[in-house]
Amino acid sequence: MSGAELNALIDATYKVPQIAPGLLAWLDTACVWQLQRRNGYHFELQPPEAAIPPEEDAVSIDVVIAINA
Fold first, then answer.
1. What domain count does the chain have?
2. Which of 21, 26, 40, 44 gives 20 to 30 Å between its CA and that of 59?
3. Whole domain around residue 63: which residue ranges?
4. Mean pLDDT, to the nearest integer, of 5-23?
């Protein structure tokens, strides 16, 4: 993805219904991580499980499937 696409995805995480807030927070962080990595800043990206509480697992999976489609 281009930088502009990553920034658009970051913006979208704030403008969509917050039905899976942990997933959206992680997606935002992953996009920022990628942009920072491209600029020479390196930090460890935590796995999705670090941001998604267990009670959001099912809805998060549904959201990822919808995004993929």
1. 1
2. 44
3. 3-68
4. 92
Closest to 60 (Cα-Cα) out of 28, 29, 31, 24 = 24
Matching residue, tokens 């920072």:
36
In the chain, the amino acid numbered 58 is: A
Beta strands in the chain, from DSSP E residues, in sequence order: none
Contacts of 63 (CB under 8 A, 6+ apart): 19, 20, 23
Say how far apart CA 25 and CA 51 lie, in whole Å: 7
Residue that is written with structure tokens 């600029």 in the block: 39
Specify whether the CB–CB gap between 52 and 22 falls below 8 A. Answer: yes
> With a threshold of 0.90, does the pTM exceed it?
no
d(CA 38, CA 47): 19
Side-chain-side CA neighbours of 67 within 13 Å: the count stands at: 14
